[in-house]
Amino acid sequence: MVKSALVTGATGQDGSYLMELLLKKGYEVFGLVRRLSVPNMGNIQHIVDRVTLIDGDLIDQSSLNAAVKEADPDEVYSLAAQSFVATSFVQPVLTGEITGLGVVRLLEAVRANAPDARFYQASSSEMFGRVDREPQDETTPFHPRSPYGVAKVYAYWACVNYREAHDLFVSNGILFNHESERRGLEFLTRKVSHGVARIHAGLTKSIALGNLDAKRDWGYAPEYVDLMWRVLQHREPDDFVGATGESHSVREFVAEAFRLAGISDWEKHVTMDDKNLRPSEVYNLRGDASKAKRILGWEAKTRFKDLVRTMVEAEIRALQQVRPAR
Ligand code: NAP
Ligand code: F7E
C-alpha cells in the first residue's frame, strides 16, 4: 500500500526537503500552501508536478479540515509556522495565532478526520531559551525568550496533551538550528553567506549584523528531515532532540564564511545595526541528540565548516549564473 503524507509549510526550507525525501520513499505527497498575491514556489519548483498542493492557512480551521479530508494521510508533518524569531517580537499575536494555535487547529482537523494518522510537530530548541545546563536534551526545562519560543512551547504541550487525552500518535522533534541554501534570506546563516557572495562579486561592501557572540548548534537541513521521518516510523509516539552536539558563535560563522570567499579582513565588511538585536536573546544552545541516535539510528553528519562551505559556495555559484564571469 502506498502511504500518503500531508506536509504543512510545504514552500519552506524543511517542507521542500521533506517532500523530496517522501517522494523518494514512494509516498503520495500532499503539501499545504497558503494563498499569496505572488506565489513563492522557489524551493519546490522542481517537484511541483509530483505533489498535490492544497490551499489552506493555519489561521483557518475549515481549510485545515478540508486539507486533511482530501489528503486522508497516514502521516502529517506540522511544519508551517511564523518561524522568524525577530519578527515574533513585532508580531507577537500573529506568531501566537500561527505558530501556537495553528498547531491546535491542525490537531483538531486530524482528530476529527484522520484519527489514525501519525503526527509530527516541528518543535524547536528556542523552547530551551535561557538554558541552565549544557548540552540540552529531552529532559531540559523550557524557558523561552521570544514570542516565537513561547508559541512553540504551547504547541509542544498541546501535542503531548493530544497524545495523552485523545490517544493520537503525536511526536515532537525538538530540532536545533538547521540551515541550507534554501533558508530564508533573513536568517543569520543565509544572510551572511548571501552577503559574503555579494561582497566577493563586488556588488556590495558590507553586511549589517547584531549580536556576534550568540552561539548556536547549526546542522544541515536535509539530514534533519530524515530525522522527522524516522520519528514517525518509531513504534510509539515520543519526543526527540535533533542536533549536531557542537556549538559555534555567530562571529565564528562570519569569519569562516569570509575566509572561504578569500576575504581575510572580515571585520572591515561587518557593521553593527541595533535593529538586528533582540529584546531578549538566546545566548547559547548546544544539543544532545543521543536519544535519537540510540533509538532511531539518526546522527547529524555535516560538521560546522562543511555547512558554511556548502552555503557560501552555493551563493557564489548562484550569483555567477546570474552574472557570468567575463
Ligand atoms: P520556513 O522556511 O520559515 O517555512 C515556514 C513555512 O510555513 C512556509 O512554507 C510558510 O509559507 C508556512 N506558513 C507560514 N504561515 C503560514 C500560515 N498561516 N498558514 C500556512 N502556512 C504558513 O521554516 P523552516 O525553517 O522550514 O522550519 C520548518 C518548521 O520547523 C517551522 O515550524 C519552524 O518553526 C520549525 N523549526 C525550524 C528550525 C530550523 O532551524 N529551520 C529549527 C527548529 C524548528 P510561505 O512560504 O507562504 O511563507
Ligand atoms: O539567528 C544572531 C541572532 O535568526 C541566529 C529559526 O529557524 O532557529 C532559528 O532561530 C542567531 C541569533 O535563528 C543577526 O541574534 C546576529 O542569536 O538565524 P537566526 P534563530 O533565532 O536561532 C530556531 C531553532 C528556530 O526554531 C527558528 O525558527 O544569530 N544574529 N545578527 C542575527 N540573526 C539574524 N537573523 N540577523 C542578524 O543580522
Notable features of this structure?
326 residues; alpha/beta; Rossmann fold; UDP-galactose 4-epimerase, domain 1; 2 domains; 10 helices; 16% strand; binds NADP nicotinamide-adenine-dinucleotide phosphate; binds ligand F7E
- Beta-strand share of residues: 15-25%
Count of the separate structural domains: 2
Catalogue the unreliable spans.
none
CATH class of the largest domain: Alpha Beta
Task: Determine the number of helices (DSSP H or I, runs of at least 4 residues).
Answer: 10
Assembly state (oligomeric):
single chain
Order of neighbouring strands in the sheet with most strands: 3-2-1-4-5-6-11
End-to-end Cα distance, whole Å, is: 54 Å
Strands, total number: 13
CATH fold name of the largest domain: Rossmann fold
Please give the CATH architecture of the largest domain.
3-Layer(aba) Sandwich
Average pLDDT confidence is: 97
Instruction: Assign an overall shape.
Output: globular
> Structural class, from helix and strand content?
alpha/beta
What composes the largest sheet? 7 strands, parallel
Fraction in helix: 40-55%
Question: Which superfamily, in CATH terms, is the homologous superfamily of the largest domain?
Answer: NAD(P)-binding Rossmann-like Domain
Order of helices and strands: EHEEHEHHEHEEHEEEHEEHEHH
Give the C-alpha Rg.
Answer: 20 Å
